[in-house]
């Protein structure tokens, strides 16, 4: 199988896992497991070696990971639109509302 096909399949499967994780977290936060969920949610995570270390609550690690994921998905799409999509037209990049 070609590599771009495998990449497309992996990208399409990613959001499915995120929806499952979202559903499980909503159920856990609104159930008798809410105290455990809050404890895990604000658990401090420490990563480092030697004198260099980063420490933050688990929710910050999750938020930064999702933000990175978002930018990694938006970047190639934006490049495609600018190079060969509607934003590649003369007026498309200046005023996207007037693009065809």
Q: How many domains in all?
A: 2
Number of helices: 3
The overall pLDDT average reads 79
Largest sheet: 2 strands, antiparallel
Question: What is the percent of helical residues?
Answer: 55-70%
Rounded to the nearest angstrom, the distance between the terminal CA atoms is: 35 Å
Order of helices and strands: HHEEH
Number of strands: 2
Shape: flat
Q: How are the strands of the largest sheet arranged? A: 1-2
Query: Which structural class do you get from the secondary structure elements?
Result: alpha+beta
Q: List low-pLDDT spans.
A: none
Quick description:
By secondary structure, the chain is an alpha+beta fold.
Please provide a written account of the structure.
- With 100 residues, the protein is α+β, with helices and mostly antiparallel strands.
- The chain folds into two domains: 1-41, no CATH class; 43-100.
- It has three helices and two strands.
- It has helices spanning 3-29, 34-41, 58-84; strands at 44-49, 52-57.
- A two-stranded antiparallel ribbon has the order 1-2.
- The protein is flat.
Keywords:
single chain, 100 residues, alpha+beta, 2 domains, two-stranded antiparallel ribbon, 3 helices, flat
């Amino acid at each position: 199988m070609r590599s771009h096909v495998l990449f497309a399949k992996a990208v399409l499967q990613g959001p499915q896992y995120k929806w499952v994780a979202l559903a499980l977290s909503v159920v856990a936060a609104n159930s008798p497991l809410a105290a455990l969920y809050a404890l895990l949610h604000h658990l401090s995570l420490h990563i480092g070696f030697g004198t260099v270390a980063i420490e933050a609550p688990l929710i910050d690690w999750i938020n930064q990971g999702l933000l990175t994921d978002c930018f990694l998905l938006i970047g190639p799409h934006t490049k495609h639109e600018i190079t060969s999509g509607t934003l590649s037209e003369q007026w498309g990049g200046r005023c996207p509302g007037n693009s065809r």
